[in-house]
Peptidoglycan/LPS O-acetylase OafA/YrhL (Actinokineospora cianjurensis), 407 residues
Amino acid sequence: MLTPETANQKRSPRKISWDVLRVVAVYTVVVQHITHQSPINHAELGPYPFVLPLQFGASTLLVISAFFVCVTVRRGATKRWLWNRVSRLLPAYLVAVVITYAVSRAVATSFGWYLPTHTDLVANLLLIQAWAPDFHWVDASYWTLPVQLMSFLIAALLWPRGLMRGKAIPVTLWSLVVVPLVIRFVWRHDDAAQWVKSLFDGLALHRVALFGVGVAIWLWTRHRMSGAHLAAYLVAVLVAQDAHSYFVDTPSTIAFGVVLVGIVAAAGGPDWAILNGLGRPIRWLAGISFGVYLVHQELGFVLARYLLDKGIGPWGRLLACVAMALLLGWAITKLVEQPAHRWLTTRGPTAWAWLRARPQPQEPSSGGVPVSPLPSDLPASHPRTAGAGPVTSRELEWVAMASSQVR
């Protein structure tokens, strides 16, 4: 049996391919929101030197998140696993909400923008922004956080009961595609009752198939889904996603399909060693990606408006907003995300000791655990998301130990 120390030494090196995908997903979101979304929200902020209208980054992060849920969720350790996920995502999110809310209130009157209320703040802190029309998003990019945390909770509830394994999986995966489409076009229309809209939007039913994609890709890597079945499922999800937007943004769907090919290649193929020379900057950008995602949009709009009032041109505003996202993303990662996660999972009150208990090895009947090279201990965001390789070094040690005992 491997000890935690030897498991840590023997595990495979981290694959750069996952970090590349995370970087592409998050930073295309940043550029898309600056160049395309900001003039939509605030017409005076445009135009920019170029426009990136393709919207696929957040969807990519949710797929990667779902894939690594399958990799990391463990029988006998789901409470600890869930606490690890929440401890990584929630503290940084709550701090970002408060900061964004405070800045937005401070500038709203002078800019002539919407003034967020205390109700908006509470709704965002409680992650219920999508459940009622009276609630407004402090930052619209935060929509991935409730969806992601809900998926973690569902995985933690289903996995110990064996509901994520067996012959029921294909039925479940296809239901994630078909059922939301039926609801969308039969009940959830513009004139639908508010409770129908709230239920559909609050549960993000138009996005749940993205988690099915992550699960399907993982099943394919475990030889539990054929390549033909996976290809059919991916095409179906892409068509469904385009249908949810009433086929008005097909280019974004096509771009997302291209990225899905990259995810499949990263999951089932060799690492992208050709990029190892860029490993240090890529891993640094990936390491702060969740923080960047949290602070880039609304705070970026505020900075862009301030620079516009100072006479700064399009290129200057674009570069300044990207630089701000990197700086604040790094700060929230180093000052909030990492220390909060470390404290909550290792130095928290003794009342949480049961959450920090070592998991039991996985039984052979449940199948092996993939121990191919994995990304660092970054939450998924999508949001790395995404929010998006939610794997810590301790979890990798446990994966290695479990694997050695079922082989």
About this structure: The chain has a mean pLDDT of 84. Residues 4-406 form one domain. The radius of gyration is 21 Å. The chain has one domain: 4-406.
